[in-house]
Amino acid sequence: MSLYFRSMSDDKSQRHFYLKDRQGLYPKYPRENTQKLIITESIIDAATIFQLHIDNVDNQITTVLALYGTNGWTDEHTTAIQALPELNEIIFFLNGDESE
User: Fold this and answer.
1) DSSP secondary structure letter of residue 19
2) 49, part of any domain
3) Average pLDDT, integer, range 1-18
4) Dist CA 26 CA 44 (whole Å)
5) Cis amide prior to 30 (ω within 30 degrees)
6) For residue 18, is it within any domain?
7) Which class for 68: exposed (0-12), middle (13-18), buried (19 or more C-beta within 10 A)?
8) Contact 5, 69 (CB under 8 A)
9) In the predicted model, what is the mean pLDDT of residues 5-23?
């Protein structure tokens, strides 16, 4: 379990805050029958997409999964994705700015 905080100030060095030993995946582990996976750069991006109720895109079971920032890919992400036997497409939803 982890906590995530987002700063409202425009201080580029202090925008996203994660616990040191974070674990778990947001919003949850992908469903086993996931066919299309949308990976977002941050939890706030995943929460925004999740509100769109995109369970089925192009007749494929679709799941959203957040990274912990640009360099926030964890072993937990890799393990979860490798456990998806029906996965046939991954979409990276990143904002394209320089990583910090």
Assistant:
1) -
2) yes
3) 65
4) 10
5) no
6) no
7) buried
8) no
9) 67
Helix (H) or strand (E) holding 93: strand 89-93
pLDDT tens column, 16-60: 666 666 678 989 999 999 999 999 988 889 999 988 888 887 889
Tokens of 47: 């929460």
Going by C-alpha positions, the residue among 57, 61, 63, 60 that lies closest to residue 28 is 63
Neighbours of 5 (CB within 10 A): 11
For 63, the domain range is: 31-100
Q: How far apart are CA 47 and CA 88, in angstroms?
A: 23
Q: What is the pLDDT of residue 75?
A: 93
Return the pLDDT at 81: 97
Domain count, the chain: 1
Return the pLDDT at 77: 95
Beta-sheet strand order (sheet of 36-40): 56-57, 60-66, 36-40, 89-93
CA distances from 29 to 11, 80, 87, 96 (A): 32, 7, 14, 25
